Amino acid sequence: MSALTQEEAKGLIQEVLELYPEAARNDRAQHLAVNEPGGEESGSCIVSNRKSLPGVMTARGCAYAGSKGVVWGPIKDMIHISHGPVGCGQYSRAGRRNYYVGFTGVNTFGTMNFTSDFQEKDIVFGGDKKLARMIDEIDGLFPLNKGVTVQSECPVGLIGDDIESVARKSSESLGKPVVPVRCEGFRGVSQSLGHHIANDTIRDWILDKEAKVEGGPYDVAIIGDYNIGGDAWSSRILLEEMGLRVVSQWSGDGTLAELRRCSSVKLNLLHCYRSMNYISRHMEAKYGIPWMEYNFFGPSKIAKSLRAIAAHFDDTIKEGAERVIAKYEPMIQAIIGKYRPRLEGKRVMLYVGGLRPRHVVGAYEDLGMEVVGTGYEFAHNDDYDRTMKVVNEATLIYDDVTAVEMERFAERIRPDLIGAGIKEKYVFQKMGIPFRQMHSWDYSGPYHGYDGFAIFARDMDMAVNSPVWSQLKPPWK
Amino acid sequence: MSQSAEHIMPCHPLFREPEYKDMLAAKAAQFEDKPDMDKLEEVFQWTTSPEYKELNFKREALTINPAKACQPLGAVLCALGFKDTLPYVHGSQGCVAYFRSYFNRHFKEPIACVSDSMTEDAAVFGGHPNMNTGLQNATALYKPNIIAVSTTCMAEVIGDDLHAFITNAKKNGFIPMEAHTPSAHTPSFVGSHTTGYDNMMEGILRYFTLNEVHEKQVGSNGRINIIPGFETYLGNYRLLRRYMEAMGVGYTMLSDPSEVLDTPADGTYRMYAGGTTVEEIKDAPNAIDTLMVQPICMGTKTRKFIQDTWGQPATAIHPPMGLAWTDAFLMKVSELSGKPIPPSLELERGRLVDMMADSQAWLHGKKVSLYGDPDFVMGMCQFMMELGVEPLHVLIHNASKQVGKRLKKILDEHPFGQSAQLHIGRDLWHLRSLVFEERPDFMIGNSYGKFIQRDTRHKGEAYEVPLVRIGFPIFDRHHLHRCTTLGYEGGMYILTEVVNTLLAELDRKTMGYGTTDYNFDLIR
């Protein structure tokens, strides 16, 4: 049972739209929908990847966030310069939980913040000289760095700096890659263009500069796993256990060497389609490497994905997949046996980014829970195409939801759990709705793989069944 | 397989299980092109050496691990302290996502703030249309009484004229003419978050008082205005109120977000709560004086406006942190208001002195490295010296040379300030080199210091420098932002944190079983 009927859900959308001035209402109407019976093609019912309206309180970030925060930032043995004023690098420092291991400040740099801290004179006279000097200083102080990326903040693109030229010269003198990334925050409409721009720079400045090497028969790459709370590790272990050789892992706990090795693999395994489909398509076109999407949230999807991956290989791997599924089966049954009775029938609203608004649906269903509303910060239509197929009829779908819309939806639906981000978390907890951050795993994780599912189940139970939610009203009221 | 339904492990300790350790070791060995451990250790040790420090301090262009943020962050905090006020940032939307999440993580509270989402077309043609619809949409959806407009660097670089844009938005009917829309330019390539606070405060005071200032008379309302500055301790707002009330002095807090940043969980989300009212702002020029609790933060535009336009003295004070400067603050309030300092505050003072006497032996001569915003560092140095602690490294990233001179004078004049090294405009990677060169007994600063503690610990137990988390942001400990660091009460909190950190340190060093059985005392 969904929370609302088709009609009720449509009525709710209408009601929320009434809050807007007319022009804004017409715009927002295109981004809110109810999943129709047999809904397959999203194109006709929802519009996405459009500019956010001014003044509405979007949760979206910017292209810099998509490049520095998501795609490039986690490459741990390169140094990523936040090029521009001091804020962007500071706000995005060490907050995403894209875990890695290494000697930070020696051969890995993920939780550090390197910035050019632009001053007025840099805006007036340009930042290119400063950038060149910074790269030299970096190489002097951090000789084990494998390369540098220049993550452009807004002013860089507005003052006419030529970071490409600086990058070429510095790269030559250092003998290491120096990658200029034009991810200024005003480009595009969300983080999404930053992903694309970052993908393109990996293509142009790393991949295509390498000669293709020969790899082994079972070589694969994990692409689009940011290792939040260790997700890529609890995924990798399953792939290795089934007999595959994961020679490259992007970008969570990733290295330059792994980026370079990627052109040798037999199959690219793509977890976050949204942020890394571009480079996967490029490798398919240029190197003939096939790619496939997979989903490591929840045992149903994991088993399905393991088999689909194995189907690309010989019987050794196919048997390996079955062996892995069988191995974890008892543990998973125990987890479901423990938590499903506590979570059965609970209704969930989601609002996340990348792949999660659809990919976690199966994991909730494994626990007997139902997703009654879902939406993306920065999806494109192909994401909604994939989403409509996995959610139930009358599920509310919201693209780039505004703060006021999300509050109204939650007030009416009164879900048993909301999974969204830090900006939403405290709003809904005050309303008495259990909440989990589904970007950072709320400082827990991993959630990928079988080991991750156990933690996912535990965490959802903790949130939904916490004793605190019965204490909101004083006993005398 | 290590996971079981009875014992579910998150990242730690899951990834310490043998199968994960082996997997990560194999990944590193086969695919990462990682230098061997000897090399890593060698380079790590080099980064802790005097030679490295010298190289590190030669940096001219590169900033590593800054101890400051950018202007509009401060503007947002300032705006949140006014009643029914929506902070509105004109420029790129990603900035606002960052400001909100940065404050969310520190306060563990919702942060309402909008952007007008300027994109490439606005970069070319200017953000006027964004301002029009942004103000219109924000007004319709969130019904603020005040929209406080600041800017991101994008809008500043292309030269958008806030005042003209807002005025036109009104003239063209996007929002009513009478809508309250103070504004401030807050370029992130000038100053820091404290500058942004100052600019927004000045913008708000100017907007509501400039045209009526001829009707105002200094001293006519008998009150004292208090401007807290970029203050992230909720307890400090409450302490300032409590002290003024205890003194029986009428006061106006100009910006007080302590309600909106501390709303209850009772089933209702309140987007607005508490804060300074428009009436209070308009009455502020009638006050006897305006005291700026963070005089350096507020020392540029706001002070000038209050002196030049309101004609108030804007009497210079020190931040009321520690004993002497809290004394001075209360005496100043007493002097300005003619009201005596009440026995209740004398009692509170006596209690702090009593605690200082109780703990002095554990603090005397201990060395501290501290960093943070200028007013905070200034006040903290002062209090540490009162406790007999010697500031060793004093680092402020976002202060002018002039401020450095003032602080130097304070340190030079105090017997416990003699060994202090002042580092203005330096970052936390500089601080890392400094604490390796000469180990302090502890550090005081925000959560970013935890990485320095980890590095010192890797060098060896004898080098580890514990971190006392006082400052902003504090992301990795819960609820510390609720505490109080100002006044006598704040002194009690700081003293308790510091002395117990040092005692815990002593335990750590003396809990060797069968080896260091001395000084591992039950009673201290």
Characterise this structure.
The complex is a heterodimer of chains A (477) and B (524). Chain A is built from 20 helices and 14 strands. Chain A folds into three domains: 1-60 and 336-477, Rossmann fold (3-Layer(aba) Sandwich); 63-209, Rossmann fold; 219-320, Rossmann fold (3-Layer(aba) Sandwich). With 477 residues, chain A is of the alpha/beta class. In chain A, the strands form three sheets. Chain A has a six-stranded mixed sheet, sandwiched between helices. In chain A, helix 9 (191-205) packs parallel to helix 12 (273-287). The mean pLDDT of chain A is 96. Chain B is of the alpha/beta class. Chain B has helices at 11-14, 18-31, 37-47, 50-56, 71-80, 93-107, 120-125, 128-142, 153-157, 162-171, 193-209, 234-247, 278-283, 301-310, 322-337, 343-363, 374-386, 401-412, 428-437, 449-459, 487-510, and strands spanning 63-64, 85-90, 114-115, 146-151, 224-227, 251-253, 289-292, 367-371, 390-396, 421-424, 442-445, 467-469. Chain B has a five-stranded parallel sheet, with helices on both faces. In chain B, strands 3-2-4 form a three-stranded parallel sheet, sandwiched between helices. In chain B, strands 6-5-7 form a three-stranded parallel sheet. In chain B, helix 17 links the parallel strand 8 (367-371) and strand 9. Chain B is globular, with a radius of gyration of 25 Å. The chains are: A alpha/beta (477), B alpha/beta (524). At the A-B interface, helix 3, helix 4, strand 3, helix 5 and helix 6 of A face helix 2, helix 3, helix 4, strand 1 and helix 5 of B. Strand 3 of chain A pairs antiparallel with strand 1 of chain B, so a sheet runs across the interface.
